[in-house]
Specification:
Helix content is 54%, strand content 10%. It is α+β, with helices and mostly antiparallel strands and 537 residues long. 33% of the residues are buried.
């Protein structure tokens, strides 16, 4: 009766193990749990989990435990296993049947050995050497292959020295032990192969994301760097917020699944830029389209200068023979003055075109004056205004290099991002990706875009990404239209944004107090940009 009750108890334990295996997502913890569960139901003193090396004909040590020797290697123990992989074949291609773990994997059979020292079938010289060095006595072995649904070996579970209940004397692994471990190995292999399949799908999915970012990078190397840095800063701030157990955000926390969801959202937050025209994304000057039109204006200035010289020469010729030297000198001086004015106006337009400084009313008026005051003969031989309406509009951009229409084009990327992400059939653990990724241009006061959400309508994760997106943009040094700001300047701007209700005040406080901005800067920002910041009290 006790034997029956013991068996039923172990079957119940096996069932509980199966349930637990199906819930574990981390592959290393899963392997460790498999080994510890097998040791538990068979009262084994030691054991090893081997994994089949993908793309190689060998077994790799993953987890090792021997209780009586206090050996714990691999997994959560933090002690690496430095043993060489076990080859499944010899150099000549024949199967390596001398090693028991390799034999079990090659032939997909369980091997139950009563005493390794007297077994004639396998090479236990390595085991004996280990015993000599440690004073241990390796005796009974139970080696079980783990096969997936297709019958392919994905690993080997090996147990060492079954112990008698009560006395802890080493004994053999019984037939019941073997059946239980084979059942466990079968369940474990299914759980492990499912997790490996999920990992492969996750890797494939992340590769597709990298493919999208690569496409954006190929269009513009500037946004490519942005797509990598924003996720990194997002995770830094999210982790700091989860660890900050004070104030309004004290209740915020993240599981590993939550972190993965936010990571994916960060990687996809600008995927809509794949639809944005590259000449708008990379618009380095105000007159740039597919090329910088300032060169056309340079040409027109040269035409005006030639015209002025020709006119002066004609005036001088009209005075030949020289009857009025003073008049000729006046004509020459007038020409030089006109050339100097043209050069000054050309230099002014080149400076205005760079978009580096805010355009004052006087500067805008000067652009408009130049545009209409000068006349030049175009290729159709018609006198026309020096600057076209479009050129005047672009050169009069008050800040930056983008017109309102071009800014709308840039801003549309977030609409495109939302459309693209909302079309995907997200699994439960990633269902918040569209909201996280699509909210990084919203404002806490509801004046952002595309949806005009307020702080209360946004998740903490979306608000985190908004801060990461802004700080990266301010400090980025790889943009064609601006230099990367020093930390003090970037933080000063963000303090103003906090006061204006643009970014989340509580998260920004964590961003500063926990030194997130500085950790990010040391990893991603040019050292020349890192300076001391002073915050208002």
């Amino acid at each position: 009766m006790n034997t029956v009750e013991g068996l039923l108890g172990r079957l119940e334990q096996l069932n509980d193990i199966g349930v637990a295996l199906s819930k574990e997502r981390d592959i290393t913890r899963l392997l460790e749990y498999i080994l510890m569960a097998a040791k538990g139901i068979t009262r084994a003193d030691g054991g090893t989990i081997y994994s089949k090396v993908v793309g190689a004909d060998s077994l790799r040590f993953e987890i090792m435990r021997t209780d009586s020797l206090n050996i714990a290697m691999g997994g959560s123990a933090g002690q690496p296993i430095n043993f060489a992989d076990l080859p499944l074949t010899h150099a000549n291609g024949t199967p390596n049947d001398s090693l028991v773990a390799a034999y079990a994997a090659i032939h997909t059979v369980t091997v139950n050995i009563e005493d390794a020292y007297s077994d004639p079938n396998f090479d236990f010289s390595g085991t004996r050497k280990f015993d000599q060095n440690t004073g241990y006595r390796s005796q009974s072995f139970l080696t079980v292959p783990m096969c997936n649904q297709d019958g392919d070996v994905i690993g080997v579970l090996q147990l060492l020295n079954a112990l008698e209940p009560g006395s802890n004397e080493v004994t053999t692994f019984s037939k019941a032990d073997q059946q239980l471990v084979e059942s466990l190995a079968s369940q474990a292999a299914i759980a492990l192969s499912n997790r490996l399949l999920m990992k492969q799908l996750e890797d494939l999915f992340e590769s597709f994301i990298s493919l999208i970012n690569m496409a954006i990078d190929e269009k513009s190397p500037y946004t490519g760097g942005h797509c990598q840095r924003v996720p990194a800063l997002t995770m830094m701030l999210a982790d700091a917020t989860a660890q900050h157990q004070e104030g309004p955000l004290a209740g915020f926390s993240m599981t590993e699944m939550d972190r993965y969801e936010l990571k994916i959202a960060g990687l996809l937050h600008d995927c809509g830029k794949v639809t944005t025209p590259v000449h708008v994304v990379d618009k380095a000057t105000k007159l740039q389209t597919l090329y910088d039109r300032i060169d056309l204006i340079d040409t027109r200035f040269e035409v005006l200068k030639r015209d002025a010289e020709i006119e002066a020469l004609r005036q001088q010729l009209a005075l030949r023979p020289c009857v009025d030297a003073a008049a000729e000198r006046a004509a020459t001086c007038s020409l030089q003055s006109r050339l100097d004015t043209l050069d000054a106006d050309r230099d002014f337009l080149r400076t205005a075109n760079s978009g580096g400084e805010f355009m004052s009313d006087a500067a805008v008026a000067r652009v408009r004056h130049i545009g209409s005051h000068y006349q030049w003969r175009n290729p159709e031989h018609r006198q026309t205004d020096f600057l076209s309406i479009d050129e005047v509009d672009n050169l009069c951009i008050r800040k930056g290099t983008l017109t309102a229409a071009e800014r709308d084009t840039i801003n549309y990327h977030i609409v495109a991002t939302n459309k693209m992400l909302e079309k995907l059939p997200w699994p439960k653990h990633l269902q918040n990706v569209p909201e996280y990724a699509g909210g990084h241009h919203e404002r806490m006061d509801g004046k952002g875009y595309p949806k005009g959400l307020t702080r209360e309508q946004m998740s903490v994760q979306a608000r985190i990404m908004g801060i990461a997106d802004i700080f990266e943009a301010l400090t980025a040094s790889d943009r064609p239209y601006k230099l990367g700001m020093k930390l003090s300047q970037a933080i000063s701007i963000m303090v103003k944004m906090k006061e204006d209700g643009h970014i989340d005040a509580d998260l920004f406080d964590v961003f500063i107090q926990q030194g997130v901005y500085l950790r990010y800067a040391h990893e991603f920002v040019d050292p020349m940009q890192i300076d001391e910041i002073r915050l208002p009290s």
